[in-house]
Write a structure and sequence with these properties.
Oligomer: single chain
Low-confidence stretches: none
Structural class: alpha/beta
Distance between the termini: 54 Å
Helix content: 40-55%
Strand content: 15-25%
Number of helices: 24
Strand order of the largest sheet: 16-17-15-14-13-12-11-18-19
Number of strands: 19
Length: 627
């Protein structure tokens, strides 16, 4: 749904005045904005909003700059709220960029989740480059690049935050000051090396993320710098350029917080292909060849690429199912075949209802969906019925379809894992599993027939990223709400007094991959479970009881006498509230917020692992049934 600026501003101010987060529809309207002036005003209006407001995921961000920050904090605040984040933004002092990175003063009372470094060309250039030989300017750039690497390394050593830097455009004033064509080429080469080095930082340290601002500015009709404001207030970038940086930062923090979306639901007629299938038949569809068919092929290629990277595809088309099957099976230019979709919903039901059913069969929340359709009526209906769904318009010129789908970064992750790439197949298996369940008269018979296999393994350098991603994304079965990131998880993994374990599940329909993780503090006498998370797609199979049983056995084998754990309630984890009681632990204390502590002597604990699960322990290199 589109909202004009007046209604959008009124909705934001009303929410802030009432101490609540803007409604999902309002947040999605903010996320779709590209007007820096309006976003700046919205960001200012959102400043009093509590970062813990229900419906938002709190995030702490420090912003440091080599020049004046200008509108950046307000632009960040608006774009982050649009993504479902509740930002607390702390800004550094003007002129103290290097000192703050060196001393770590950006940490304040609480370590931030992210540190954004606003870089300008002045940081890397000598005071008067036009008065110097180009080789000396190049040497200065290289020296300052090395200085920045050192500053970032020092900062990373004192924080668990994600450090965000960006590439830097070179102004025409500096470039054109060198009248030798060859000198300009040498300077440009050095500047490209600088930006390539900044982009390469992410490969050197998982705490560092580099955004390609210079590349984006080359693609956007946006001036990077207002010379008057730069001279007047040392503002290195225009608001439009700062908005690009804010949007890219939003994509990073959204992914870090586990708010990336998982499902792309696509309409068919005039979205996946040109034309109305029921009128022109499969042979008459516009697909492939020259425009407009080429544009529809480009969208299909984009969707196929997303699927290859872990996005689950759903087809939601008002059409006869046999005609759709004929088209996607037989059309020679079709890039997406039936097996590309985890759910095929070709019928005449309301699309909102089809999306609800798809979410149910996949075991995913509707807030993880992105819906793309050419019909304003269908988009508005889905928006009205399912306001949490991100809606993408597919009408207008089809040449822009692929860009419209990809530009907001709904599906971004910090790092692509093997589990991400396996997800579409796993969710297709889940839909088949749901159909299979109907053939059994009891749940126990169904679970026994599934042939469930659970594997426990210690965290490794290869699985740490997936474990941290699981912590960030899991809401329903997240027992304490603590979201250990990759850095914290790696530190526990490599320490002597903690255990970090991953848990994988497979059954007769396929391999679910890593679906659970546990972080445990291992004392000599007592083991304390810091958190246990489990993907919602395996709930209802008793997997959590098999995992807790394994943890208790590990503790006993290590010589511990007692195990403790806790449950911290949230708006979404009620389904897991009784986990520790079912696992055999006894309540020890309860806080006013509903948090509960549990404990029990290991010698008193019963075995609770379900009989239908076969367990493989890679630590002990053994396999055992529980029957």
């Amino acid at each position: 749904m589109t909202m004009d600026s007046t209604h959008l501003t009124a909705a934001v101010r009303s929410a802030v005045a009432e101490g609540r987060a803007p409604e999902p529809a309002t947040r999605l309207a903010i996320a779709a904005l590209d007007d820096p002036a309006l976003l700046r005003r919205l960001g200012s209006a959102l400043k009093p909003l509590d970062s813990d407001a229900p419906g938002l995921r709190p995030v702490r961000l420090a912003v440091l700059g080599t020049g004046t920050l200008g509108a950046l904090p307000d632009l960040l605040r608006a774009t982050l709220v649009g993504a479902g984040l509740g930002p607390t933004i702390e800004t550094g002092e003007y002129g103290r960029f290097e000192m703050e990175l060196t001393l770590g003063s950006f940490r304040g009372e609480h370590d931030p989740d992210g540190v954004l470094c606003l870089l300008s060309e002045e940081f890397f250039l000598p005071p008067a480059p036009q008065r110097m030989a180009v080789k000396d300017v190049v040497a200065h750039i290289e020296a300052r690049t090395a200085d920045l690497r050192g500053l970032l390394g020092t900062a990373a050593g004192g924080t668990a935050a994600t450090l965000v830097v960006h590439t830097v455009p070179l102004s025409r004033t500096v470039r054109d000051a060198f009248i030798s064509v060859r000198d300009r080429a040498v300077l440009a080469q050095a500047w490209h090396r600088l930006n390539a080095g900044l982009l390469g930082l992410a490969a050197e340290d998982p705490q560092l993320v580099a955004l390609d601002l210079a590349g984006l500015l080359a693609l956007q009709p946006t001036r990077a710098r207002d010379n008057r404001l730069h001279a007047f207030a040392d503002m290195p970038y225009t608001d439009a350029a700062l908005l690009l940086l804010a949007q890219e930062t939003r994509r990073v923090l959204q992914a870090r917080a586990g708010l990336s979306r998982k499902v792309l639901a696509l309409d068919a007629d005039n979205t996946l292909w040109g034309g109305v299938l029921g009128e022109v038949g499969a042979h008459g569809l516009q697909l492939g060849g020259l425009y407009p068919g080429k544009a529809y092929s480009a969208l299909q290629q984009a969707a196929a690429g997303l699927r290859d990277q872990g996005v689950v595809l759903v087809l939601a088309s008002k059409n006869d199912a046999d005609l759709v099957d004929e088209a996607i099976t037989g059309h020679p230019e079709m890039k997406l075949r039936p097996e590309s979709f985890s759910v095929l919903a070709a019928n005449w039901d309301a699309k909102a209802e089809n999306l609800r059913r798809a979410a149910g069969s996949l075991g995913l929340g509707i807030e993880s969906f992105v819906f793309m359709d050419d019909s304003p009526y269908e988009r508005e209906h889905v928006h009205a019925e399912l306001p949490e769904v991100a809606v993408v318009a597919a009408d207008g010129d089809p040449a822009h379809l692929a860009e419209s789908l990809l530009r907001h970064g709904w599906f971004d992750v910090l790092e692509l894992t093997e589990a991400d790439q396996q997800r579409p197949g796993m969710y297709r298996s889940r839909a088949l599993r749901s159909e299979y369940k109907g053939a059994f008269s009891s749940s126990d018979d169904y679970l026994a027939a599934l042939d469930i296999r659970l594997t426990a393994a210690p965290a490794t350098a290869y699985t740490t990223g997936r474990i941290a991603q699981l912590a960030a994304r899991t809401n329903q079965f997240n027992l304490t709400g603590i979201r250990y990131d990759e850095v914290a998880t790696a530190a526990m993994r490599d320490g002597q007094d903690h255990l970090v374990a991953s848990f994988s599940v497979s059954d007769r329909f396929g391999d679910e991959g890593i679906v659970g993780a546990a972080w445990v503090e291992c004392g000599a006498r007592e083991w304390r479970v810091l958190n246990l998370v489990l993907s919602c797609r395996v709930l209802g199979r008793g997997v959590e009881l098999a995992i807790s049983d394994w943890l208790f056995q590990q503790a006993a084998a290590a010589g511990a006498e007692r195990v403790t754990a806790s449950f911290v309630p949230s708006a979404k984890n009620a389904v897991a509230a009784d986990t520790w009681e079912r696992a055999g632990l006894l309540p020890a204390a309860q806080e006013g917020d509903g948090s509960r502590a549990y404990a029990r002597e290991l010698a008193e604990l019963p075995r609770t692992a379900p009989a239908w699960i076969t367990f493989t322990d890679l630590v002990a290199n053994k396999e055992e049934g529980n029957g």
